[in-house]
């Protein structure tokens, strides 16, 4: 019997969180005997989706602003109708060629409304296919709040009319979908919690740093990195610092950070062994993105979280505050962040190592594979 075929659509627009989480799930699916094709729509990210996974790379689009209200091509030029129509056609052609048993769409319809120009035609193609593949939404545990009037109802209608299952990648003991999506009760029968999609347990690090600061994809992390870089200069020089800027930090900002860094600071754009490095670190400073937090929860590293709030974003604040309530993180504000604030938080963290165990389910990738296996026989 041939392996069930999975067609996994993922679009990252600003950071790399969506492609990182989808890649962890895709790798778990491959390990569990599925034939996986991941369709990516954002800028290439080193190491993702990963070895052994078929990949279809659509002409990339990015968010043209931090509010995610527009799309641009890889050169920052607004994506016009011709460009978007070509993407749509390439996506539909990839679907026809893959002939999947299961289609997974990451974020939509709870997010990624900007991609309706190609996702809605894909939904139509799925409904017309014979046999019709199962259709799943893959969504993180905390959604963006303050959505426009009518948007939640539209999401419910799309789930009811098209999706077989909504995979919520979280532990309901930590946060439930209804905490950030008020109409959850109307689609409750389709929801399956998977646990948090954390990376596999990382090996012991080959290199050790006292403090690791990371800015995710880097597109919106320059203020965090500047404050951390300055804080390192004010703290004892025997501390070893690693600053991971992310691949999308503008080159001018990267160069400026490099020029200002002291001898005990190492600045890089990307470290594939990031989860492993966290195991050897004493303190982590980062935003409160889903994947970074998942990595942190598998270590004893003390976490200082600076949630991303630009453009009205609320997701990271909810996550950070809940972790703080559990004693698993300290939180600093993004607005008005200073080197002094960072330095004081680091001194406190170094003086009080984390002793709280993590009571959360972090095996979401493998559980996702098990759920899909049960659906496909």
Task: List strands and helices in order, with pairings.
Elements: E1 5-10, H1 17-31, E2 35-40, E3 54-57, E4 61-63, E5 71-73, H2 81-98, E6 102-106, H3 116-128, E7 134-140, H4 151-162, E8 165-169, E9 191-193, E10 211-214, H5 222-234, E11 241-244, H6 251-260, E12 265-268, H7 274-280, E13 283-286, H8 290-296, E14 302-305, H9 315-325, E15 330-331, H10 339-351, H11 364-376
Parallel strand pairs: 1-2, 1-6, 2-3, 6-7, 7-8, 8-9, 10-11, 10-13, 11-12, 13-14, 14-15
Antiparallel strand pairs: 4-5
Describe the structure in your own words.
The chain contains eleven helices and 15 strands. Helix 1 packs across helix 11, helix 2 runs parallel beside helix 3 and helix 5 (about 220-235) packs across helix 10. It has about 375 residues and is an alpha/beta fold. The protein is about 35% helix and about 15% strand. It has two domains: about 5-200 and about 360-375, Glycogen Phosphorylase B (Rossmann fold), CATH 3.40.50; about 210-350, Rossmann fold (3-Layer(aba) Sandwich), CATH 3.40.50.2000. It starts with a strand and ends with a helix. It has helices at about 15-30, 80-100, 115-130, 150-160, 220-235, 250-260, 275-280, 290-295, 315-325, 340-350, 365-375, and strands at about 5-10, 35-40, 55, 60-65, 70-75, 100-105, 135-140, 165-170, 190-195, 210-215, 240-245, 265-270, 285, 300-305, 330.
